[in-house]
Design goal:
alpha+beta; 3 domains; 17 helices; Immunoglobulin-like; disordered N terminus
Length: about 425
């Protein structure tokens, strides 16, 4: 018993000595006794030897925090004081305590303002207040229940636990919104915003349907033409083009032959265009043959001119006078280009001039140097008429049949059948070319 008493007394008397030799223990003892000022004085004394580190920093941080609480008003230290303290004692556990208190008070002050809540999260990212801030913002986003709200949430808060859910819901809501009340512009924006969306093909199909219905409601050439221009890959673009042309053809037909011919030349791809051009040009084109000596004045009915109108599909002129070496074509509308294909029937065979005429001229004694290198008609315009000069030596005594096939290029179409003249040169032979 005596030994036990001696041991207890030794321990009691040893505690002050231990505190005196251990600065950390001394600060803790003073703080536990409520002697905060003296505890802080000990911390200040330790700071004289260098920065506080390790356990001493933790213990002194607790003392400093208690001083902050004691010196504050009844409401406690404000957010600014707590934030400054957390920064000053960074690395010590008490800094986290101050930061947690500051963030909670900041969140209370932010209320429901999303911008202020976002500021709290940015300022205190690793606190319980930040987690609670994310929860508040997410609740507001769910209440809004729009694709724009979801997009705003995950773009502004990519680190939020709910960011992945926001992205998923944005895609679902975006399609729901645009398909509920679809408009062409809305569908275009949807496809631009979500090029990889699972519903992008449905969005394009719906856009195609809307634009076609809009053109159908107007049912005018311009409405269909706008669709064709804006949507060249539309699955019904050929139908739209056909409808436009059908309407244009009907209007031109009602307006008269001039309008109908102009329409057909402007739209050679229209199924009925070739027939219209062929018919109207055949009816209205004036073809005349004559002598160059007549100089083709305005009075085209002068001497030496042979008028071959009206021309049917196979008009036959029994005899083409020997003096005729010029063809003149008056066309009904601008933009039609004439061209003649001329052939000769010799020995029962039709031959081109380039093949048939050189030997014929050589037989007449014409030197090779004077035989024309080309047998195409060169056209000039005289007083609104297209004038072509025939190659020399076309008419010979034996009276060969000469075939004239008029080709006309109109609106991108080359019509080789509207006119055909079968003529026979039977008059006096033309003089030989002079050497």
């Amino acid at each position: 018993m005596h030994r036990l008493i001696v041991t207890v007394v030794a321990v009691l008397f040893a505690r002050p000595a231990l505190a005196a030799s251990d600065p950390v223990a001394k600060v803790r003892e003073l703080a536990a006794a409520g002697k905060i000022d003296k505890a802080w004085a000990s911390c200040e004394k330790q700071k004289e030897g260098g920065a506080l580190t390790g356990t001493m920093k933790e213990v002194c941080g607790d003392v400093a925090f208690q001083m902050l609480l004691d010196g504050a008003s009844a409401a406690g230290p404000d957010i600014r004081q707590l934030a400054a303290f957390a920064e000053l004692w960074k690395g010590a556990p008490v800094a986290d305590k101050a930061a947690d208190m500051a963030s909670k008070r900041s969140l209370i002050a932010a209320g429901t303002d999303p911008d202020l809540i976002a500021e709290v999260i940015a300022a205190w990212p690793d606190t319980a207040a930040a987690t609670e801030g994310y929860n508040r913002l997410w609740k507001q986003t769910l209440n809004a229940n729009t694709s724009a709200a979801m997009r705003s949430f995950h773009e502004r808060h990519p680190d939020a636990p709910q960011a992945a859910d926001a992205k998923k819901l944005e895609l679902e809501l975006a399609w729901s919104e645009v398909s509920r009340s679809p408009t062409v512009e809305g569908l275009k924006q949807f496809q631009l915003a979500y090029p990889a969306h699972a519903k992008k093909d449905q969005a394009l199909a719906l856009e195609y349907s809307l634009v076609f219905s809009a053109a159908e409601a107007k049912n005018t050439p311009s409405a269909w033409d706008q669709l064709v221009s804006a949507y060249p890959r539309h699955p019904r673009v050929n139908e739209a083009r056909s409808r436009s042309m059908d309407l244009g053809y009907a209007a031109a037909e009602k307006a008269g032959p001039d309008a109908l011919l102009a329409f057909a030349m402007a739209h050679p791809e229209y199924p009925r265009a070739a027939a219209v051009v062929a018919t109207l040009l055949k009816e209205r084109t004036l073809v005349q043959a004559g002598s160059a000596a007549a100089a083709l004045p305005s009075n085209v009915g002068g001497a030496g001119l042979l008028t071959v109108l009206p021309i049917g599909s196979s008009a036959i002129v029994p005899a083409l006078p020997a003096g005729v070496d010029t063809l003149m074509v008056r066309l009904p509308v601008p933009g039609v280009v004439p061209k003649f294909s001329v052939e000769i029937l010799a020995n029962g065979q039709r031959q081109t001039l380039a093949a048939a005429m050189p030997p014929r001229l050589r037989a007449l004694g014409v030197p090779d140097a004077q035989i024309p290198p080309s047998w195409e008609l060169a056209w000039t315009v005289v007083e609104g008429a297209n004038v072509g000069r025939l190659p020399p030596g076309l008419c010979q005594p034996e009276g060969a049949d000469v075939y004239f096939a008029l080709l006309m290029t109109a609106g991108g179409m080359e019509l080789g059948y509207p006119f055909q003249l079968v003529t026979r040169c039977s008059a006096a032979p033309r003089a030989k070319a002079s050497p």
